[in-house]
Specification:
CATH class: Alpha Beta
Structural class: alpha/beta
Low-confidence stretches: none
CATH superfamily: Alpha/Beta hydrolase fold, catalytic domain
Order of helices and strands: EEEHEHEHEHHHHHEHEHH
Shape: globular
Number of domains: 1
Number of strands: 8
CATH architecture: 3-Layer(aba) Sandwich
Helix content: 40-55%
Mean pLDDT: 97
Length: 260
């Protein structure tokens, strides 16, 4: 892994493989290691770029509220610094939100877009939930979020069968910098771009876990219906982090779409 100065912060990233570029963008409370399995699977066919979003992993975590304009500028700045003119993009949850903003603000940088376990809008009635998460993290740190988050991100059978994954992802959640969580959560709680995403012209695949309570299939259906020509795929027996819970199904969908 390497670090590069972008948009006044230090961004940690990793590049592996060869072929057309595909950029992977992780969820809130994770980092680029969330994509370990998918990166290995794609590297024989693609040059895989992974990076830690502002406030996460080895990337700087400045204080204050972040915005998706800022998070997208971090991404395009990273592409500039690495001399990458165009890329496929795979984003999950917060990463999918960044992908939608990239497709709107810099369509010339994007080939194909995969939006997984994501949304284009946080409704006003969900704002108190995000306010409570922000308050809890400020007062108790991100370790206080581990159990509830794992409960949303994985189905009970998978949690019981894979304590190793729970320990790995629980560690990422717990170790997320408070400033990073709060900064990104402030961006997420104000997300409202459903009316704009009809302007996206990149070929788009929308993926969702059938059992995802946070961004359920109905939310992904809104995205797929709004983006012209978008295709939606539902992964059975999977919740929010479907890329880990059903990693082979997720890999097949992503690799098949990007190679088509």
């Amino acid at each position: 892994m390497k670090t590069i100065r972008v948009n006044d912060i230090d961004v940690r990233y990793q590049v592996e493989g060869s072929g057309p570029c595909v950029t992977l963008s992780h969820s809130l409370s994770c980092d680029l290691t969330m994509w370990d399995e998918l990166a290995v699977a794609l590297a024989p066919t693609f040059t895989v770029l992974r990076y830690d979003t502002r406030g996460h992993g080895g990337t700087s975590a400045p204080e204050g509220a972040y915005s998706f304009a800022q998070l997208t500028a971090d991404l395009t700045g990273l592409l500039d610094a690495l001399n990458i003119e165009r890329t496929h993009f795979v984003g999950l949850s917060m990463g999918g939100m960044i992908g939608q903003h990239l497709a709107l603000s810099a369509p010339q940088r994007l080939n194909q877009l995969v939006i997984a376990s994501s949304t284009s809008r946080i409704p006003p009635e969900a704002a108190p939930l995000w306010d409570e998460r922000i308050r809890m993290v400020r007062e108790q740190g991100c370790a206080a979020m581990v159990e509830a988050t794992l409960g949303r991100w994985f189905t009970p059978p998978f949690r019981a069968a894979r304590p190793d994954v729970m320990q790995r992802i629980g560690g990422l959640i717990a170790n997320t910098p408070v400033a990073g969580y709060v900064g990104c959560a402030e961006a997420i709680r104000h997300l409202d771009i459903t009316a704009r995403i009809g302007a996206i012209r990149a070929p788009t695949l929308v993926i969702v876990g059938a059992d995802d309570p946070g961004t359920p299939p109905a939310v992904s259906a809104v995205i797929a219906a709004a983006i012209p020509g978008a295709r939606m795929e539902t992964i059975l027996s999977a919740s929010h982090l479907c890329c880990l819970e059903q990693r082979e199904a997720f890999r097949r969908l992503v690799a098949g779409f990007l190679s088509a």
